[in-house]
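Example for tutorial group B:
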């Protein structure tokens, strides 16, 4: 066990949802809450019953309820994290997953990260020697076991669901054949494959951290896209990890010069337009029973392209703004920069409007498993107002 400021279960999102479903059943019986009269989601990826549990009934679970399920006291729940070497915790975890995958058969599976930043088991940070249950066990045993428990629970609820097990962080990012050997045959192993790979993008030579977009994916406005606001004056805020990007272009771009950063995202966005044309053709030729799914994928692809285009726009807006505020531009160049900023604002208004229409139709847009909603449709309305206000004051 390891001390925590507050109780949380962090094996992965799907496990968290499973535990919520289990807690719901403790107080509401075995019947999932009913959805409202409004359609839950118009695509098969999120069945209505899943929508009912996750989207309409997400709640913080009271420590007393957790203590009751685990057969312990509130103090233990609020001051300590659950140890996955505890048979009661294993049963709770497995039963919760079995419950969720039985009640929501449309779920495709789970994806586990068991040695990352968040506390998922006593060995995830190599501190299992501090746990009275785990101190005589190896990290190999603990990590393999928790993944086995997850897989057993998922497949008890739905034998056809997939369990993807990622080896990120195992053995301090080293080789972990001993853990792999202990995994059940029913899981899919995903391994970090690009670590230390030498790459060159936009003329810039770098070395991959975990994956090829490692340098920018955490801080750039990729997650928020057109929902990220623009600012006529520097905010001084630093971009947060997979959070709010603000106007921190220096933090967004990693090792890339600002113009190269913007150019690279523009290339991705332009390529995305060509891809959308082909995807639209494919959707039009899709048989009627599968057309809804094809249209669903097309919406996601369109949203992604809008995000990439917006990152390029935002980077260029910050560059133009800062150049203008430097006071070093001649009068003619100042006017040109004003026009450039106005054009970028107009483009962002267009992107936000298009994304708004997509997000209204598809509740997945703007949602991310670890952080929930980066934006909802009303945030895109705010972005339009934000751009119109700045444009009026240029």
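The residue assignment follows.
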């Amino acid at each position: 066990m390891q001390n925590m400021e507050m109780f949380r279960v962090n094996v992965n999102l799907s496990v968290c949802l499973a535990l919520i479903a289990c807690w719901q059943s403790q107080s509401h019986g075995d019947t999932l809450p009913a959805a409202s009269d409004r359609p839950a989601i118009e695509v098969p990826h999120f069945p209505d019953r899943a929508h009912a549990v996750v989207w309409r009934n997400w709640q913080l679970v009271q420590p007393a309820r957790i203590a009751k399920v685990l057969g312990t006291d509130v103090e233990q729940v609020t001051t300590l994290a659950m140890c996955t070497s505890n048979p009661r915790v294993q049963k709770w975890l497995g039963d919760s997953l079995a419950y969720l995958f039985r009640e929501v058969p449309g779920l495709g599976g789970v994806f586990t990260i068991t040695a990352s930043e968040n506390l998922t088991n006593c060995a995830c940070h190599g501190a299992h020697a501090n746990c009275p249950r785990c101190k005589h066990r190896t990290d190999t045993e603990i990590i393999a076991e928790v993944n086995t428990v997850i897989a057993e629970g998922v497949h008890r609820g739905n034998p056809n669901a997939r369990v993807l097990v990622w080896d990120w962080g195992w053995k301090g990012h080293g080789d972990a054949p001993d853990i792999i050997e202990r995994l059940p045959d029913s899981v899919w192993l995903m391994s970090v494959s690009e670590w230390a790979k030498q790459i060159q993008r936009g003329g810039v030579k770098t070395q991959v951290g975990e994956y090829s977009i490692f340098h920018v994916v955490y801080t750039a406005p990729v997650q928020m896209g057109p929902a990220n606001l623009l600012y006529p004056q520097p905010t001084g805020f630093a971009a947060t990890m997979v959070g709010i990007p603000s106007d921190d272009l220096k933090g967004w771009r990693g090792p890339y010069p600002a113009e190269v950063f913007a150019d690279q995202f523009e290339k991705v966005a332009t390529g995305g337009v060509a891809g959308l044309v082909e995807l639209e053709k494919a959707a039009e030729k899709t048989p009627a029973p599968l057309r809804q799914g094809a249209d669903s994928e097309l919406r996601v692809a369109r949203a992604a392209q809008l995000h990439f285009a917006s990152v390029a726009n935002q980077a260029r807006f910050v560059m133009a703004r800062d150049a203008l505020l430097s006071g070093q531009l001649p009068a003619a160049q100042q006017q040109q920069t004003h026009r450039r900023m106005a054009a970028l604002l107009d483009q962002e208004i267009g992107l936000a409007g298009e994304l708004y229409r997509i997000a209204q139709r598809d509740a997945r847009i703007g949602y991310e498993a670890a952080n929930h909603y980066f934006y909802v449709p009303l945030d895109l309305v705010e972005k339009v107002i934000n751009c119109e206000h700045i444009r009026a004051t240029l």
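The chain is about 50% helix and 5% strand. Compare this with the pattern of hydrophobic and polar residues in the output above.
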